[in-house]
């Protein structure tokens, strides 16, 4: 038992370090430990900046921890055997990231009712959502002056408050996408004179941590398979109705994600492999939806044809191709369907209302294009 606790603590502390490093890199717009001449041991001033990454790491890890312990304590309430959270640290040191791939708990025995699936599934996102609201509230009500941004980008000073009209000219400029909740905070809470461009949110640790918290909340609330949103919708609908609906929602998700991936101007003789590769991807992700391979081929062909038609009729329509990676994980790792439980008794009206509230939270948090490089 002590060794298991030590492992969880070690992973948490390591993730605290990696997210602090990532937070410092985003906040100050530079890498640490590596310079133009390779490895560089940080000086005293650099360690001060690294410590500045704690504002991001404590906020974002606070969200992740609250989310996972929402699941954990609810599972323990139902006497379901469950592990403490496993944190996943990721920091390469030479490229920007967020320092982690998230956290997860392992449920070590079967869950016996729709109610338990629903309660365990919904507890994490709603608990984490409270932390996300706190991060955004603090971040938008404590925006620093313009001098803060000039200290990171002194070249912006000559443009003044209208810097955004002049400085974003590179092909790799990164902006965060918008969602309804972030937009509401910008419109109703923030001081317009202090509000940064969407390209600069990464330098504002509480706003960046808050946005990522909304992103991960929406990701978990997708009503597909065995994601938290899948557990919630399964609890509301039951085994048969959910497993008829989930593949439809998944197909719509992939359809949107792939829009605009391949241009109709591609030369089919020279670049046929691009179309073939994408067609193979569609077959791979749709194959697990059916017992017969033929039906997976037909669905893949239908989705590809519909995407081509949309692109022909509306050439400017663009999905978010980054979702295709998550679509592959959903199909081949997490699964699109939900297992049954021995007790399929329907939920109470109160839980049904709570499920609809979770849907509202999903709509508020979801960004159709969360990270934009243009």
TrEMBL record:
Residue runs in coiled coils? none
Bilayer topology term = Multi-pass membrane protein
What keywords tag this UniProt record? Hydrolase, Membrane, Protease, Transit peptide, Transmembrane, Transmembrane helix
Where does the Peptidase M50 domain lie?
55-241
Q: Does the keyword Ribosomal protein apply?
A: no
Question: Does the entry feature the keyword Hydrolase, yes or no?
Answer: yes
UniProt xrefs under InterPro entries: EGY1-like, Peptidase_M50
Q: Where is the protein found, in the record's own terms?
A: Membrane
Q: Which cofactor does the UniProt annotation name?
A: Zn(2+)
Q: What is its main location?
A: membrane
Spans traversing the lipid bilayer: 86-105, 117-140, 201-224, 245-266, 272-290, 297-314, 320-340, 352-373
Give the Pfam families listed for this entry.
Peptidase_M50
Any idea which GO molecular function terms this record carries?
peptidase activity
The biological process GO terms on file are: proteolysis
**Membership in a protein family:** Belongs to the peptidase M50B family.
Which protein is depicted? Site-2 protease family protein
Query: What organism is listed for this UniProt entry?
Result: Rufibacter sediminis
């Amino acid at each position: 038992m002590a060794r298991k606790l030590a492992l969880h603590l070690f992973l948490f502390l390591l993730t605290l370090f990696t997210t602090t490093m990532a937070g410092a890199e985003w906040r100050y717009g530079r890498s640490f430990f590596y310079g133009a001449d390779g490895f560089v041991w940080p000086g005293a001033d650099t360690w001060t900046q690294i410590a500045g990454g704690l504002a991001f790491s404590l906020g974002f890890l606070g969200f992740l921890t609250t989310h996972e312990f929402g699941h954990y304590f609810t599972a323990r309430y139902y006497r379901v055997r469950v592990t403490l959270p496993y944190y996943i640290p990721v920091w390469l040191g030479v490229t920007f990231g967020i320092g982690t791939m998230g956290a997860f708990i392992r449920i070590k025995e079967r869950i016996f009712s729709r109610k338990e699936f629903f309660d365990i599934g919904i507890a994490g996102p709603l608990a984490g959502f409270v932390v996300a609201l706190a991060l955004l509230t603090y971040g938008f009500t404590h925006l620093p002056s313009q001098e803060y941004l000039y200290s990171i980008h002194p070249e912006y000073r000559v443009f003044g408050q209208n810097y955004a009209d002049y400085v974003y000219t590179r092909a790799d400029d990164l902006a965060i996408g918008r969602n309804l909740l972030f937009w509401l905070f910008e419109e109703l809470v923030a001081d317009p004179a202090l509000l940064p461009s969407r390209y600069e949110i990464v330098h504002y640790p509480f706003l960046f941590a808050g946005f990522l918290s909304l992103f991960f909340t929406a990701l978990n609330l997708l009503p597909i398979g065995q994601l938290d949103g899948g557990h919630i919708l399964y609890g509301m609908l039951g085994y048969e109705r959910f497993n008829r609906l989930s593949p439809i929602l998944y197909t719509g998700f992939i359809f949107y994600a792939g829009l605009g991936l391949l241009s109709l101007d591609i030369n089919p003789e020279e670049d046929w492999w691009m179309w073939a590769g994408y067609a193979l991807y569609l077959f791979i992700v749709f194959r697990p939806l059916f017992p017969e391979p033929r039906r997976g081929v037909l669905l893949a062909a239908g989705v590809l044809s519909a995407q081509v038609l949309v692109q022909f009729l509306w050439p400017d329509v663009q999905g978010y191709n980054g979702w295709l990676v998550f679509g592959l994980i959903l199909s081949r790792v997490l699964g699109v369907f939900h297992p049954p439980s021995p007790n399929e008794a329907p939920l109470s009206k109160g839980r049904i209302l709570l499920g609809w509230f979770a849907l509202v939270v999903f709509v508020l948090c979801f960004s159709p294009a969360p990270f934009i490089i243009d």
